[in-house]
Write a structure and sequence with these properties.
Arc Repressor Mutant, subunit A, binds S-adenosylmethionine, seven-stranded mixed β-sheet, alpha/beta, Rossmann fold, 2 domains
Length: 353
């Protein structure tokens, strides 16, 4: 790339980055939620969301210039100009059940910005930044992004393992969800398989507490439970018909130990289901959008969070299929890729060798 092209790219990237942060602000302060009730001018938005009118005006204009909001009624007085949240934008930003929901993602980016000095320190010292330090933005960013896929997809993913699907459908069955985050996969599994009890384990205490609250809100607390702990040394007892690891193997400091523990918890005929990033089979540069997305998360979030946990293996987000197969073999499994369609993940079935 010529210098001038790089400069242009950096400028465009800076615009995108700042627009992402302004979307995060709009989500955090409830500005989009307020506009979902109907068009508003700066004073109306300020009253509805409890922000200062001057900031409301600037944000509304910025969002319209960025193409996220529409001008509903123009006016020479900038404070009287009304802005609307188009239905498509409302769905993507506010409807957590929509398959197109991405409203939690800008907050994840903002959570990285908030800890950037700690990430810089970690680069220098080789240390880490605890997962918890990224706060609610990361927790909800991951959970919010994955929740629609769990709700609509989990039964189909399990159907790719007909023997396990039969065990879960017939019940009673037991499922372990390692690295369960805020619990949406465990809840989706319990909803899809009423004869199953699901137990989630996560190293992040705040995630476990939220997961328990989410299960209670879904009226599933009797069948969906959570415990704070390390998947490499789970206190949970088997036997489990299925052990799931959704987008979490790459976050574990010792993924092989976690898989080995899972093997010890499996009931005879049980299996492990891993879903992790659909990155290229080999390192390629420049990479496609998925490769770039996962490397960016890796350098700024997953690798620092994993190194805060320990440095046994720490894969980083870019967990290639060959690496999953190597971990599986080390932990005593046969590994097969499952024919499951997903935009972001690959699915692997592990059976004790
Ligand atoms: C990217 S999040 C995925 C969360 C959830 N499975 C989902 O798909 O929404 C990775 C999760 O792995 C958890 N984690 C990392 N290391 C772990 C370990 N050693 N044992 C258990 N959980 C771990 C993190 O706390 C985080 O909640």
């Amino acid at each position: 790339m010529a210098t001038e092209e790089i400069t242009e790219r950096l400028l465009a990237d800076a615009v995108t980055a700042m627009e992402t942060l302004s979307v995060a602000l709009g989500v955090r302060l409830g500005l989009y939620r307020a506009l979902s009730a109907g068009p508003a001018d700066a004073h109306g938005l300020a009253r509805a969301a409890g922000v200062h009118p001057r900031y409301a005006r600037e944000w509304l204009e910025q969002q319209a210039a960025a193409g996220m909001l529409a001008v509903a009624a123009d006016d020479a007085d900038p404070y009287a100009r009304a802005f609307a949240l188009p239905a498509d934008a409302a769905e993507a930003l506010l409807d957590a059940d929509s398959p197109f929901y991405a409203g939690a993602l800008p907050g994840f980016v903002a959570s990285i910005a908030e800890v950037l000095p700690q990430v810089a320190d970690a680069f220098e010292t080789g240390g880490g930044v605890p997962y918890a330090a990224y706060g609610e933005g990361a927790r909800h960013g991951i959970g919010g992004l994955n929740r629609p896929a769990f709700r609509t997809g989990v039964a189909g993913w399990i159907a790719a393992m007909p023997d396990i699907a039969a065990r879960l459908t017939e019940g009673p069955a037991r499922v372990l969800d390692l690295g369960c985050g805020t619990g949406w996969s465990a809840i989706a599994l319990a909803e899809a398989f009423p004869g199953a009890r699901v137990h989630g384990i996560d190293l992040d205490e705040a995630s476990c507490a939220e997961a328990a609250g989410n299960a209670a809100a879904a009226r599933l607390a009797d069948r969906v439970t959570f415990a704070h702990g390390d998947a490499a040394r789970p206190a949970a007892s088997g036997p489990a018909d299925l052990v799931c690891v959704f987008e979490a193997l790459h976050d574990m400091a010792d993924p092989v130990a976690a898989l080995r523990s899972a093997r010890g918890l499996l009931a005879p005929g049980g299996a492990v289901l891993i879903a992790d990033e659909k990155v290229a089979a080999e390192f390629t540069a420049p990479g496609d959008l998925l490769e770039r997305l996962n490397y960016a998360f890796s350098a700024l979030h997953c690798l620092p969070a994993t190194r805060a946990e320990g440095t046994a293996v720490e894969a980083g987000t870019v967990l290639r299929p060959g690496t999953v197969r190597a971990y599986a073999a080390d932990a005593g499994y046969r590994c097969a890729e499952l024919p499951v369609e997903h935009d972001l993940w690959r699915f692997y079935r592990l059976d004790p060798a």
